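Troubleshooting entry. Yesterday's outputs looked truncated, so today I'm pasting the complete records for two proteins to confirm everything comes through intact. If either block looks cut off, that's the bug. Protein one:
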Amino acid sequence: MPTDESLSLQLVEKTLAPLVRYRRIRKSECVIPLKALGTAEAYVVSDFELAEELIARGADSARIAISPHDSTEDQYLGYSQVAAGKQLVPTSPFDFKQSIVIVLPTYNERTNLETLVQAIGRYLVADILIVDDNSPDGTGELADQLSFQHRHVHVLHRHRKEGLGPAYLAGFEWALQQHYSLILEMDCDFSHAPWDLPRLVHRGRTTDLVIGSRYVPGGGTENWNARRRFVSRCGNSYVSLFLGSTIQDWTGGFRCYRRELLTRMNLTTVRAKGYIFQVELAWRAVQLGANITELPIRFIDRVHGQSKLGWRSITEALMEVPKMYLLGLGGR
């Protein structure tokens, strides 16, 4: 039986939690133009497919609740929100009853790591593999602490920083050895929204590769200056010039792979070290005839820490993309 103190705490939490008025959207209403939501409003839909239709039309994925029950109540208790106008949080994380792991490469991410691990757990039942490249700020030690506290958190220590590509490859190899069915990747700096993870997993159950895309309808970036938008657009245009427009966001790093696709990729022969690693794996998927889907996401610039994209990565991209094209021609 709850104590007076616990009851008081529950009352305080309910008082502080902002109330949400939900707009139930049905399939027949998807042709109706979307109206701007107020800070106390959100959408509720019956399934992920309907949610994707709204997001492609410009709705914010953070403000969509998924409920199969056709309730007409304004207050749907399956979700809450952290603050007025902010993202919704389900009362329990999505559980797809599959073996899922999220690979998080880290280098000097101590500020973000624990908060991100907690946020992931609010939205998705999945294991987390932290791949740390011997961060001097103590990220590796914090990762070990989190692994000790949480059974679903695992740590892979690497002796030195070799680049994003080798870190992901080490994580993928570990995940394949553990026989996970779905293997996700995301940044550790909250550039990729944790509440979008269930969307990637849901689509990943029927698709070889799911890419969280900034450049399909409904996708975009936030807090980017004009220079960064220009560099990103030019980078994707440069890749498309050689590799085609099969994929709109070649450099996106928010992805869900089926293990069967990764096992076919012959990962030991991957050449790229930096951010162009994402392009190489996407190109290999195209060459293998994989079923690839892009889901719109809003990429948010990091709040803490510094971007790790430098001139070395840009130079690597300029040199490696033409090589991928030529090697792809040779393999046909």
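Protein two, checking that the full record survives here as well:
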Amino acid sequence: MKKKVISSILTAVLAVSLAGCGKDENVSVVKAENSEATTSGEVIELTNVSYDPTRELYAAYNTLFEAHYEDTFGQKISVTQSHGGSGKQALEVANGLEADVVTLALEGDVQVVANAGLIEEGFTSEFPLDSSPYTSTIVFLVRSGNPKSIYDWDDLIREDVGVITPNPKTSGGAMWNYLAAWYFFEQQGQSEEEILASIKKLYGNVVVLDSGARGSTTSFVENKQGDVLLAWENEAFLSLKEYPGEYEIVVPSVSILCQPTVAVVDEVAKKHNTADAAAEYLNYLYSDEAQEIEAQNFYRPSNKDVYAKYVFSADSNTITEIPEDGKWINDNITLTDINHFGGWTDARAKHFADGAYFDQIYEQ
């Protein structure tokens, strides 16, 4: 049965350390504080456990959602956010981190929480479009001028190229990276044995395997490691925005449609009496206003009309700056999706489970 949908709210954003939850330095928390609501004792409190690159998105979304909820229901809400590698975040929730909602990098990570008995079956049908309110894809971030001439996936297996990508064991984005590369080599007509050899060469070129996508961005952008970052599209655009003139985005010939999945953590929401507010927090992600926020933060909105506003006609697959007109979506790319790999259950078992293909090709 679909959850009853009502709304929630949030306020200004304050970054704090993840106190009392035993997280490492790659995990952070953002809490929206509302002093008036807190002192009145009438505030609804929600915790959103999300993945690495969504900090900026949810900071903007929560402010929008605050006004929506208060205007509609006249009640305040305070949302605490937790960020880290998606796979690690899923395990944290499964092992006791109390999240009212999860907004993770992929369905398979939400399934980990469901397997722990915390989310009811059928969560991908709870909200529209397989409970994926926005999508993304995987692109390359290179240094200005693209000094190593990196234009497609086969360039990543050259001996002179250093690659930065997170660890598929802890990062959902890293799984998308791996599968996008696999699809490219498959499209080149390689046999499974040949694909494994190519993927092994690629990971042999990895300079550092961070636990999450934001950590990998830091390694490449701030620590100047590697020649190319395999990046979520939004992470790559944020780097262009924050470091103008220093980096370029290369859109490869093929990639994968990344579908981050959202879900109410049913058992926790029941315990906190927040099920309705949590459901509306996720439902409002599909509103026109929220879809605009998602697009402005370089996520591909699911609303076709909003999506169309941000598409540009690309005459090159290299992007050197944020377009002044705000049109940033390059559709000149062939995207596969997780169904090509048999869904997340099959993909995990074949590629990412202990002893599966990734463990076989990557030598620690």
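Both blocks look complete. Sanity check on protein two: Residues 138-257+316-361 form a domain with the D-Maltodextrin-Binding Protein; domain 2 fold (CATH 3.40.190.10).
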